[in-house]
Design a protein that fits this description.
Number of helices: 8
Strand order of the largest sheet: 2-3-1-4-5
Bound molecules: adenosine-5'-diphosphate, cytidine-5'-monophosphate, magnesium ion
Structural class: alpha/beta
Shape: globular
Largest sheet: 5 strands, parallel
Order of helices and strands: EHEHHHEHEHHEH
Helix content: 40-55%
Number of strands: 5
Radius of gyration: 17 Å
């Protein structure tokens, strides 16, 4: 079988995966990273929610069920959404001449098969940023977020299922990348600003603060 070449070369694109349990603060910290380091933020969950309500999507009902049950949507769907979003960003808002585009991919890969498939067909990642947060803290944040988020999965029952999926299915991805020395881990229980200070430290230690 012929070897597959990823759609994007690491010569042109830097990919940072952003992982952490539901409610650990990935979306919140992403906004800081976009502002300070020029990352393009792509949230797998946001892309799936947009696809869920897109007129004419054949996946709408399927995505809705998976999200409510806290299960991982089949990877082909999510990887295609991410790959297309990357291509669109490169076409419409290319990075400054002579520099690489920088993508912060939030909430992905949530399962080992997604990690393998993405790196084989889309782009090899540079780093994994991982927010470590205990479940009681995440639960309190999510229940509070659920008061205004309108998300169908920010309720006690879905949250329980999402935690289970995270422990059983997503943590093995973090461990796999840890074994490759690709993980920067940050404790995420303190205030947004304190967590961000640690995130910055981790990013800078790995030399990712400067565009290349
Ligand atoms: P994730 O994207 O990892 O699920 P979010 O960034 O949406 O998490 O954060 C979940 C909720 O917790 C949001 O309502 C957010 O405002 C809040 N939050 C995020 N980080 C912190 C923090 N360090 N301390 C307190 N609340 C936080
Ligand atoms: O990251 P976020 O909390 O927005 O994800 C919401 C839901 O979207 C997840 O609980 C899961 O059902 C789905 N999802 C997925 N695969 C991903 C990211 C999110 O199936 N890589
Ligand atoms: Mg989020």
């Amino acid at each position: 079988m012929a070897a597959t070449t990823p759609r994007f070369s690491t010569k042109d694109v830097t990919v940072v995966f952003f992982l952490g349990g539901p409610g650990s603060g990935k979306g919140t910290q992403s906004a800081n990273l976009v502002k300070d380091y020029g990352f393009v933020h792509l949230s797998a969950g946001d892309l799936l929610r947009a696809e869920q309500v897109r007129q004419g999507s054949e996946y709408g009902e399927m995505i809705k069920t998976y999200i409510r049950e806290g299960k991982i949507v089949p990877m082909e769907v999510t990887v295609a959404l991410l790959s297309n979003a990357m291509a669109e960003s490169l076409a419409t808002a290319p990075p400054p001449a002579g520099t690489k585009a920088r993508f912060l991919i939030d909430g992905f890969p949530r399962k080992l098969d997604q990690a393998v498939f993405f790196e084989k067909t889309v782009c090899v990642s540079e780093l994994v940023l991982f927010l470590d947060c205990p479940e009681d803290v995440m639960e309190a944040r999510l229940l509070k977020r659920g008061e205004t988020s309108g998300r169908e999965d920010d309720n006690a029952e879905s949250i329980r299922k999402r935690f289970r999926t995270f422990v059983e299915t997503s943590m093995p991805v973090v461990e796999d990348f840890r074994g490759k020395d690709k993980v920067v881990e940050v404790e995420a229980t303190k205030s947004v600003d304190e967590v961000y200070a640690k995130v910055k430290e981790g990013i800078e230690k790995r030399g990712l603060h400067a565009r290349s």
